[in-house]
Design goal:
6 helices, elongated, about 85% helix, binds fe (ii) ion
Length: about 170
């Protein structure tokens, strides 16, 4: 069965979220470079705030989108490899959150013009965060999303899009 327009919209939204994630990782890398070479500028402070807001907000919402609507479709698969993939992706979200909690305090300080953190440590934490994120996104785009798309094709995804929008508005 071909995908419904709403299903296409949900997956387009998830794909757009991955593009945005990639761009935010580039911004974060540029910020760490700038802090290391020039110290704290007003532009870096503003940049730190934007990246902090993104990964503390929309990136976490994206993980919830997947945990609520995409991974369950894979976890209910009869294919053990697919179940294992979903379990790994879920575990990645936990690791990414741990990595982020190591990065966020430094960015919070940077956004306030304070540089108590060690830029070399921040760079190392970013290296780990970025590598895991890029690997995670690749696995989702090559395995998880195509499989979820097939499995959800004959279901209405209207409820999914609605839940995703309402959660962002804080309406539960
Ligand atoms: Fe994910
Ligand atoms: Fe994702």
């Amino acid at each position: 069965m071909s995908a419904s327009p709403v299903s296409i919209a949900v997956f387009s939204f998830l794909d757009a979220a991955h593009r945005e994630l990639g761009q935010q990782l580039v911004q974060l890398r540029a910020l760490v470079d700038a802090v290391e070479s020039d110290g704290m500028s007003l532009a870096s402070r503003a940049q730190a705030q934007r990246v902090l807001d993104y990964f503390s907000g929309e990136a976490r919402q994206h993980h919830l989108d997947e945990e609520k609507h995409i991974f369950p479709a894979l976890l209910s698969s009869q294919d053990p490899d697919m179940v294992q993939t979903a379990e790994r992706l879920l575990q990645d979200h936990g690791w990414l959150e741990q990595n982020w909690l190591q990065i966020a305090p430094a960015l919070d300080a940077a956004s306030n013009g304070s540089q108590w953190f060690d830029p070399a440590e921040l760079r190392h934490a970013l290296d780990v965060f970025e590598a895991l994120y890029l690997d995670h996104i690749l696995l989702e785009e090559t395995v998880a999303f195509p499989e979820a798309k097939k499995r959800l094709a004959d279901l209405s995804t209207v409820g999914m899009g609605r839940e995703m929008a309402r959660r962002r508005l804080g309406v539960v």
